[in-house]
Amino acid sequence: MSTTPTRQDFDHYMTPNYAPQQIIPVRGEGSRLWDQQGREYIDFAGGIAVNSLGHCHPVLVNALKEQGEKLWHLSNIYTNEPALKLARTLVERTFADKVYLCSSGGEANEAALKLARRYAVDHYGEQKDKIISFSQSFHGRTLFTVSVGGQPKYSQGFGPVPGGILHATFNDLESVRQLVGDDTCAIMVEPMQGEGGIIPATPEFLTGLRELCDKHNALLVFDEVQTGAGRTGELYAYKNYGITPDILTSAKSLGGGFPVGAMLTSDKVAKSLAFGTHGSTYGGNALGSAIALAAIEFIDTPEVLEGVKTRHDLFREHLETINRKHGVFKEIRGMGLLIGAQMSDAFEGRAKDILPLAIEEGLMALIAGPNVLRMAPSLVIPEADIAEGMARLERAIERLVANA
Ligand SMILES: *Cc1c(COP(=O)(O)O)cnc(C)c1O
């Protein structure tokens, strides 16, 4: 029996809810990866906005090794130093007074939604239970978060689904005004829709949501699972807008590749997550917290955050140059190192066709829906890797155009 796993093993042994590419990466360093055959790839995908410092960054490897030889896990019957340091760090660097730690974005959002409902019950009564979110939004894959998310295909066939959820149109304040009322307990929004196509919220939209929440005593929840932890060139995207949410969720880049999530909130709101109301066995796990702490301390510096903005400009320039030659994109958008290139009419729906071509050229990229090529690389990706990755992307796009 062969001891080296193959791609066919995926189809044999794993549930078929994913369809991974044919190659199997086995090693990574910075923004480069190598597969089982030793072929090298440049990583513009970043594990879907997770590998904030690339692969095996020494700062994260050291945190992992150091904590790994000390203490991994206790459960929440005891607290631990790394979790306390991580919570303090997040509080000191954001609007928040209190932090709930968990292991994923879906879990952070689940906590946020449950907290919003509890807060409404505590302060206003059970009738205040409506949650407003947006079409095309994505908030995770638990039953509550797929129901709040605005992509019906993720909740269809899993009913009965939780009730009291309404969907408005992103960047359309009027559509929210039609749904909001004194029975609204929360509005949940991504400051920039990620899975929905890399669509930044307009400042007027977020300002308007803040005002509507204040008017109706509803909580404003920012899902920053994809935009957080330095991704947009600020520690959290709300800082770009100068609009403060009541609850903010973070995961993905927060752990730099280790599963860590967090929900941040104010003292007043946090009180409703009273003793015994919610929990997670792994939440605030010592090993994960130590890694997230190292990631946040490294990322939240002027050098790294400025570097994200500089790299954004570089990505944009390269994509525009490619587009001048090949005319495949209609719009290039995003913030920091979460970038989307929407396909032009002639290539409508063909973003996904770029991915296997890119892999053949030695580049990993992402899509956000059928029509947007997405990039979410390491926040410290070297300029040389950007240039080489873009050369490979251009070759993939030449082949897309040639086969059109
Ligand atoms: C990825 C994502 C989630 C879900 O995070 P998981 O860690 O997969 O549970 C939630 N919200 C947004 C905006 C995301 O991008």
TrEMBL record:
It catalyses: N(2)-acetyl-L-ornithine + 2-oxoglutarate = N-acetyl-L-glutamate 5-semialdehyde + L-glutamate. Pathway: Amino-acid biosynthesis; L-arginine biosynthesis; N(2)-acetyl-L-ornithine from L-glutamate: step 4/4. Pfam families: Aminotran_3 (PF00202). Gene3D superfamilies: Aspartate Aminotransferase, domain 1, Type I PLP-dependent aspartate aminotransferase-like (Major domain). InterPro entries: Ac/SucOrn_transaminase_bac, AcOrn/SuccOrn_fam, Aminotrans_3, Aminotrans_3_PPA_site, Class-III_PLP-dep_AT, PyrdxlP-dep_Trfase, PyrdxlP-dep_Trfase_major, PyrdxlP-dep_Trfase_small. The modification N6-(pyridoxal phosphate)lysine is found at residue 252. GO terms for cellular component: cytoplasm. Its EC number is 2.6.1.11. Keywords: Amino-acid biosynthesis, Aminotransferase, Arginine biosynthesis, Cytoplasm, Pyridoxal phosphate, Transferase. The keyword Electron transport does not apply. Its cofactor is pyridoxal 5'-phosphate. It is found in: Cytoplasm. May also have succinyldiaminopimelate aminotransferase activity, thus carrying out the corresponding step in lysine biosynthesis. Homodimer. Belongs to the class-III pyridoxal-phosphate-dependent aminotransferase family. ArgD subfamily. This is Acetylornithine aminotransferase. The gene is argD.
